[in-house]
Amino acid sequence: MTGKIETVGIVGAGQMGSGIAHVAAQAGYKVKLYDLSEDRIEAGIATISGNMARQVSSGKMEDKLRQESLSRITPATRLDELADVDLIIEAATEDETVKRKIFTQLCPLLNPEALIASNTSSLSITRLAAQTDRAERFIGIHFMNPVPVMKLVELVRGIATEDYTFETARSFVESLDKTITVAEDFPAFIVNRILLPMINEAIYTLYEGVGSVDAIDTAMKLGANHPMGPLQLADFIGLDTCLSIMQVLYEGLADSKYRPCPLLVKYVEAGWLGRKTGRGFYDYREDPPVPTR
Ligand SMILES: NC(=O)c1ccc[n+]([C@@H]2O[C@H](COP(=O)([O-])OP(=O)(O)OC[C@H]3O[C@@H](n4cnc5c(N)ncnc54)[C@H](O)[C@@H]3O)[C@@H](O)[C@H]2O)c1
Description:
By secondary structure, this protein is α/β, with parallel strands linked by helices. It contains 11 helices and 10 strands. Belongs to the 3-hydroxyacyl-CoA dehydrogenase family.
């Protein structure tokens, strides 16, 4: 048995929240997009609008669908505006304290039937679910970045997630034309368990002076056939998110092989978080971007 999803509430209008809003609205769902300030919601909607315009100009979307999709997205400046949604997708900053606070504030406002999903890249779904009043209606729906482009979605059940929740989430994700892999609830699931240690090792390779930013990215693009270098990819993901995932792996698996590289910590402490802040391993204020080391 699966439930009917008509309206989706998205918490966090950053890279991922705006991408999820994009694909959900495009698939016909009504979307309410919430973030901490009107400015951030507006920036998220502007990103969606720009990306949809690009899809139209490249012939991947009809202009009529673009207009209809955008009209299905409503900004929500207060959490209580999400009270009537069928599904919440939490896509706020990768910080367990932030996410826990959101669930504590949100749960009493929601319809008891509503499902809650987290787009967390690494945090325990079981532990997040336990912060809510509905662990059986809680699931991990892990989209990849950029959401409109990437085909994969990882579905992650917490220990208490009911079949009903899993099947409803599965049919929702399939309706977005995505391919599902199911991952068990262990730190960073499948994709990031494999990807992030590789990125962290690339940062160690830079830190230890084995190669420059350019040498490392060129080596992995041309030598391992990766479409993007690992440092370019780290900037794309967001260095704060990369560091959080490495910390979750390090602490969650209690193994020193996941120790976050001190250079990654330094970049995050500097506020050099990658593309989203204009500077990371590359400086995006220049065109083309210039390596920072
Ligand atoms: N970046 C990636 O490649 C990627 C891929 C898959 C999943 N994720 C996950 O998606 C989530 C969001 O990542 P992102 O890359 O979009 O980050 P981001 O920094 O682009 O966006 C995070 C957004 O959350 C908002 N936020 C913070 N606290 C909030 C609160 N209390 N209420 C509402 N909004 C709040 C911020 O204002 C910001 O707009 C994280 O859990 C991350 O691990 C990221």
